[in-house]
Amino acid sequence: xxxxxxxxxxxxxxxxxxxxxxxxxxxxxxxxxxxxxxxxxxxxxxxxxxxxxxxxxxxxxxxxxxxxxxxxxxxxxxxxxxxxxxxxxxxxxxxxxxxxxxxxxxxxxxxxxxxxxxxxxxxxxxxxxxxxxxxxxxxxxxxxxxxxxxxxxxxxxxxxxxxxxxxxxx
Length: 170
Fold this sequence. Notes:
The chain has helices at about 20-30, 85-90, 110-115, 120, 125-150, 155-170; strands spanning about 30-35, 40-45, 50-55, 60-65, 70-75, 80-85, 95-100, 105-110. The strands form two sheets. The chain has a four-stranded antiparallel beta sheet. Strands 2-7-4-5 form a four-stranded antiparallel beta sheet, with no helix packed on it. By secondary structure, the protein is α+β, with helices and mostly antiparallel strands. The chain is globular and about 55 Å long.
C-alpha cells in the first residue's frame, strides 16, 4: 500500500486540505508511513525522536515507564492521534512514555525540522497544518488540565462526580 492510496486528508491534522494538497505536504516534508504489528512499539521510552507520529489506522496505548522498567498504561490513541511531538520539539527531554500497538497500526511520521522549514514552499498548506497542529496541542492541554482538576479533588466522591460531568460535556 503506497502513501498515496490512503485518505490522509481525513485526519484532523489535514482538516481543510484537499488530497492533492496533502500529497504536496508529504513530498515537501519527506513524511513516511510505517506499519507496526500488534504489541510492537512505534516509540520507545527514553529514546531520542525527531518525528511527530500520527495514527492513520488502528489503535495504540501510551505506556508510562519508570527507570526501573515498571510500566503502567496511560490511555488509548486512535485514528488521527498525535504522539512523539514532545521529544521531537524538545530533544533534550527524555520522555518516559512508549507507544505500543493494540492492533495493527499505520503511522505517518512527519520530521519536525522538515515541518518547520517547509513553510515557504507550502504557503497556505503549511499555515493550515500548523493551525491544526496547534489546535491538537491545545486539546491535549485541556484534557490534561481536566485530569489535574479531577485528581486535585479531596474525596473520591468529588473526583467521580467531576469526572462524570466532564465526560457528559464531551
